[in-house]
Amino acid sequence: MVPINLIIKADNLVKRYNNLTAVDNISFYVKEGEMFGFLGPNGAGKTTTMKMIQCVSPKTSGKLEVFGMDVSTHQREIKKYMGVVPQENNLDPDFTVYENLRNYSRYFDISMEEAEKRIEELLNFVQLIDKKNSTTEYLSGGMKRRLVLARALLNNPRLIVLDEPTVGLDPQARHLIWEKLRALKKKGVTIVLTTHYLDEAEKLCDRLVVMDYGKIIVEGEPSQIIKDHIGTGVVEVDNYPELVECLQKSDSIYEVMGDIIVIYTNDPVHITNQLSMECSLDKMTTRKATLEDVFLKLTGRKLRD
Questions:
Q1: What pTM, to 2 d.p., does this model score?
Q2: Residue 245 in contact with residue 238, Cβ under 8 Å?
Q3: Host domain of residue 194
Q4: How far, rounded to the nearest angstrom, does the alpha carbon of residue 294 sit from its chain's CA centroid?
């Protein structure tokens, strides 16, 4: 059953570029106030989907509504209530931190007085108030991402769309961005993001989809997706022929990955005891199953360009 309080709703959405189908008949929804993720390898169609949501790339067919409005006919109204953090930092290097925000505020006809108030609040929010008069070329990568986030919040958006919000950042900067996103969510802001950091998606997202070759191959809450496709635990052992033969005789679910074998299980203790007794194995690594395990199982391990 689809909830009533929807910010985004897509039905049979398609995007084609000549003979290439980048988004292939997908349907999904995003509820008000949730953090929703698009995951997938390069070329999966997630960024194309985000561009259609942002009203910067027209859909080929299907239905896509944001705030209950069609993206084909209400782009201006939709963008009024949306903030966007692009994958690349597109700040003006000739302007100071303050000037980047002040100039951007003019796109939304925000008065000078109101803009000053919002800029002050946002610079405090992203912890850049002491860099207010610095030009952006002297900011670190983490500071630039926080400034881009502050810029996206200038129009008090109901929806924020983030494409790889923490790409290239050190752990401290990543966690600071996470903290700010959680704070926005608590205020009722709806957040949609793409990321290649699977731990990020697992920690932040209420729900997510995994896309591959333009299609949605799985959807749901991170913890439930992990449980459904992997189990609660993973046992890793060195790969050798005798062990493979032993596993083939058991009911274990496993994958051979180069020089290791990964066994998926809801009962790691039972599996390790079984391997010790039946396969004469005493060297094993047991860990909690993660979203990355699901991602690699569903989309494979080959590099994508």
A1: 0.90
A2: no
A3: 6-226
A4: 15
